[in-house]
Amino acid sequence: MHYNLVLHQYFEELKRTETSIEQLASIWHCSERYAKIVIKQLQQQQKVLWETSQGRGKKPFLTLCQSKTDAVIQVLQQLWLQKKYEEVFQLVKDVELQQNPSIQAWMNAQFGLHALNEEHVFVQPMYFVELFLDPLKAISRHDMHILEQIHESLFIINERSEIESNLLFDYNSEDYRTWHFVLRKGVLFHNLEELTASDAVESIRYVKSYYKNVFTIESMQILGRYTFSITLHKPLTILPNFLASIRFSVFYKGQEPTIGCGPFQLVTHTNERMRLQTFTRYFKQRPWIDAVELIYQDFEADVVSNFIFQTDVPYREIISQEQGADFFALNSTYGELTDRDKRAYIWHLIEPMRCIVDHERETLAGSWLVGQSNKLPVEKTKKPYFSRPLVIGYQEIRQGVNHLYRVEPIQQLLLEQGIESRTVCIDLKHAHEKIEQKIDIFVGGNALSDNLLLAYFMMYSSEPQIFFNFLLPESRQIAEYLLQQATSQKEGLACFKQIEQLLVDEYTLKFISHRKHYFYVREDTPYKHVEFDQHGRVNYRRIFYKDY
User: Are 156 and 164 spatial neighbours (Cβ–Cβ below 8 Å)?
Assistant: First the structure.
């Protein structure tokens, strides 16, 4: 029991109040003898003033010398040192001080980088999210972020978005169908077993079904302790890009997704916390910090925010430019827009600037990539007659988050020209029916990862293939040929650029905007020197302590 804190439920601070040992024993649910011991200790700690008087019938007086906030903070400190995090957050709720500035400041100070028992530990609060470390089941950004800490893949994408060997010492392929790989020597898993070709082959065998609609493996052979080969059914120049995906992480024997060879090893994972310990035998430069402690809670820690802090709070701004774009696509295979003139009219009518909602966080887009553009169609058409309302489908990202806000200005533009429309929400992850037979216009967005070749390929090839399904047969045939060329020759990006230009020329695709992400980090907390990646996630590998 937190004896001092309990007293604040019955007595006012700094107010001299008559009481008795019997009353204190009742409050604390203990014996009178033990109550005398506790009140004496609180007096010695200067938390209370306990005044007794000689003589029968004279009652003692109690004065609380400490504020309730200070009393709460002292208890919180004790619980925190004991790693009783759930009790910490529950206590803050119970005393209803979540919004108290002093409690907020204390809570924020517990997070960030700290030196604890000669270890540098980064402590981070976050809401509890069910964690899937199985590469086939990982779905959330949290899953991917933790996988990236524990595991390594055969290839990586460097800062210039180029493919680079990672767990490999060498690799080659003469026909892009049969690939030979040589692993680095001396790479250790977290259980100190050495990485071998068998681990790599079994890991690939486990995950290969995830991309079965894209490429299939005819055979894999272990040629030696560190060498193996993969033979595909068809040539695929961008196989290294697939193998750079975190889904193709190499884990122990291809059966233990919790045992990797990455910079951190998972040592604790409960409903209350997760601890990642730095792997000191990591084959590349080890992280500077010694551990990461993720504390699951629903306390609103305001260390990192998507919104600007109050003027009296020092903070730094982080701006991340996302590759990819929001867009609208016109369907040339269904309904009114099979007529090229009608399609051209709508393409020119919808002005991207009218569709931008947040001018600070969005910029006009002329391509999937920031700073690039396409040759635009200059064909002008007279206003055609539309015999029925246009059906506009808009993308649902997750429940409650969608692109309806993009559709509303488009509907207004159409209505200004006397063209009626209606809307339908579409979740592409569960769109099993043929969308191209139901809608005239689709409004959505695509974010592209640093692994550009893989990102382009998955965008154009993954079901329901909005862009290709909206093309007329002859144009679609050209697009599919270019997609095949992109995966069978080295100039893949050039092929993807040609696909993009084709979609624009056919009035099938028009870009709206690129997105910027803003993060604000408090400078008066231990997060001051912490780095964040482009998604606002802490880059644990780059954290170090600065005394200057």
Answer: yes
